[in-house]
Amino acid sequence: MRNYLSIILLLLTFGLIAQTNTFSPYSYFGLGSHEPQNGVFSQSMGGIGQGLSNSIYVNTANPASYVANQKINFEFNLYAKLNTLQDSTGYNDFKTFNFSRITLAFPLGKKKNAGACMGIMPYSTSGYNIQRKFTAPIAHTDYYSGNGGINKLFFGAGYSFNKSLSLGANVNYLFGDINNIRVTTFDSAYVTNYYLENKTILRGVNFDLGLQYKVYKEFVKDTVKYRKDDSVYVRKNRNMFHKDSLVHLKQFGFRAGSDTVTLIFNWGVSYTTSSNSNATRDVYGVTFKDYYLPFLQKNLIVKDTAKYSIDEKGKIFIPGSVGIGFSLSNEHKSDKRNNFLVGADFNYSNWTSYRNYGNTDSLHQSYAIKLGGYYKPLKSYRSDYFNEIEYRAGAHYTRTPIVVRGTAINEYGAALGFGLPMKFKGRSSGILNLGFEIGKMGTLQNDLTTDTYYKLSLGLNLVSAEWFRHYKYE
């Protein structure tokens, strides 16, 4: 198992760093389009995460939740996405298929009051090709092209002081590069065209701080029915080896009794610090007369070099953010599981303070509202595999920091998902997470563009208490 995980981790990490995740023209602004900072489990519920704490999932939205991961939990996610861009000239479709996140969570110590997590995921992605024509003051065309992105490598830990209160923190290493090209060509042969290429490499550190507080409320529910094939184990007298033995019985017919139900109200809050990241950039600007597409340095007949600098050092300031949310779930003593959860999150960030080598990018304040939950039938209701599936749904609305021509760019979407349990030999288990999301960003007003996307996500959680153990006898 360890060898397989090492190979998977290496392949997925290479795919994560090398990918292009977007074709949205709005990824031109700032560091590009911001990627979800949680897995398929959360995305299928609208992206909630501040109040989530689950032993079989890895919740990176709030590091205080790592306390719940008291077994080794390896997770990786991938997705297929279709983006449809629409503007006044028509439609264009773009397809992507990529890995999106790799995490490994594990317990710290034997007291079951601390857990840790490490992993890698995209922080932002950039990928666009924009063309705009102007008639004044001189007829010309502007071309914008970009690609790249910022990744986040992190390590974090959480600690619970008691049954209710837990705290956690991540240290994040941000790294990546973003390449931008701008070309201006004039209709008149007497005006010189211009080409400018900017390659920026970013390296920086920031921190996530998280808190979760749980409130428990127990009550007794009467007339609970159990299936006739429920398995019951009873103790038998000690045998000759002075060990207790278990005898397996089966219940025949339904029986009724009382059931203790616990409602769990989980508050969560997190804060991500700002980062004044180190950056280096190469800038190459030339005037040219003739060219052929695409606009690359080798495709230009250069007339004169207007700007040239290598390894120009500077700073990129990334603002911090805050998130707050809650979840409400239940736990049945008879069923030994949570069979429903509902939750909501609110996230806020002020991107007016963003700086790239001292320059702003006309970004504004942003916020996001997320709603979602899941339902899992009680064992007493069904007896087949569908009884084990988690059914998830959610929605989200984001006021992005982007404002173009006085028009705010908003994003909204809805999601559905399923958690399909898997069993392996020994004490290992897994969850196959499927999610489908549909969303839209932008508007057609003021000659802008809409980005409608359809996203199919696949995530796998492998959970075991036996990985990395060394047995003395085999």
Question: How would you characterize the overall build of this protein?
Answer:
The chain has 2 helices and 20 strands. The protein is mainly beta and 474 residues long. The protein has one domain. The radius of gyration is 27 Å and the shape is elongated. The two termini are 16 Å apart. The relative contact order is 0.17.
Name the descriptors.
474 residues; mainly beta
Offer a quick outline of the entry.
4% of the residues lie in helices and 63% in strands. With 474 residues, it is mostly beta strands.
Which stretches of 5+ consecutive residues score pLDDT under 50?
1-15, 223-241, 243-255
Order of helices and strands: HEHEEEEEEEEEEEEEEEEEEE
Number of helices: 2
Mean pLDDT: 84
Largest sheet geometry: 14 strands, antiparallel, barrel
Radius of gyration: 27 Å
Write down the domain tally.
1
The fraction of residues in strands falls at over 45%
Instruction: Please report the distance between the alpha carbons of the first and last residues.
Output: 16 Å
Described by the principal axes of the CA atoms, the overall outline is: elongated
> In what order do the strands lie side by side in the largest sheet?
2-3-4-5-6-7-10-13-14-16-17-18-19-20
Helix content: under 10%
Class of secondary structure makeup: mainly beta
How many strand segments?
A: 20
Secondary structure layout plus pairing:
Elements lengths: L1 H17 L14 E2 L5 H4 L28 E16 L2 E18 L6 E21 L5 E21 L4 E22 L6 E34 L4 E6 L8 E6 L4 E18 L2 E17 L8 E19 L2 E12 L7 E11 L4 E2 L8 E11 L14 E15 L2 E17 L5 E14 L7 E15 L10
Antiparallel strand pairs: 1-4, 2-3, 2-20, 3-4, 4-5, 5-6, 6-7, 7-10, 7-11, 8-9, 10-13, 11-12, 12-15, 13-14, 14-16, 16-17, 17-18, 18-19, 19-20
